[in-house]
């Protein structure tokens, strides 16, 4: 077993450089709710005018009042839409700075490059002992790392690529398992895997991060930014 240290900026950059080129992608969803509302209103008003009682026609003031109300509603809707679009644009601008950066998200894979591998662990409570078991895709033990005592929260670690027998493991994707305990009591631990942000995805309700082949994640699901 060996004790690991937090990755330096150089180490993280070297590992991420082997994940592939930075790319950006985004998608947006727009709606013509305001136009639809206006069309429905005009259709209804036209129907009312066609079917009105010739002996008791609609008052011009009433028609003008309804048109004015529609104009007010339309203006409010457009203002709300503009504010929403501006807020979304500001958020996307902020999140765009994450493209190319490494992030830790929940997952049990660790990618070993020629520069090493980075993983992480998320703890709901402090643990006096945390161990990481790394196996190949067949389940054969490759390396056991002793992270020692850790506080509650998210932590990262570096695997130097060495196996327990001292040999250098082949670059590739490995599996990891986290075991944590505080004294004799087990502590639930979540393994974190490293991914590179490759794009920003804007949906109808939120703006999320495309993390390479790992998938799409919300900002709340990102535990660390490297």
UniProtKB/TrEMBL annotation:
Keywords: Bacterial flagellum biogenesis, Cell projection, Cilium, Flagellum
Keyword S-adenosyl-L-methionine assigned: no
Record's keyword annotation contains Repeat: no
BP GO annotations: bacterial-type flagellum organization
Compositionally biased region (Low complexity): 1-11
Region (Disordered): 1-24
Occurrences of domain FlgD/Vpr Ig-like (ranges): 107-183
Start and end residues of each FlgD Tudor-like domain: 91-223
Function: Required for flagellar hook formation. May act as a scaffolding protein.
Similarity field: Belongs to the FlgD family.
Protein name according to UniProt: Basal-body rod modification protein FlgD
Organism: Tepidiphilus thermophilus
